[in-house]
Amino acid sequence: MTESLPVRVFADRNDACRTLAAEVAALIGAINDSGRTAVLGLATGRTPLPFYAELIRLHREGALSFSRVVTFNLDEYLGLPGEHPESYRAFMQRELFGHVDIPAENVHIPDGTVGEAELEAHCQAYEDAIRAAGGIDFQLLGIGRTGHIGFNEPGSPKNSRTRLVGLDPVTRQDAAPSFGGLEQVPEHAISMGCGTILEARKIALLAWGSAKAGIVREALTGPITDQVSASFLQEHPDATFYLDAEAGAGL
Ligand code: F6R
Question: Which end of the chain has fewer CB within 10 Å, C or N?
Answer without folding.
Answer: N
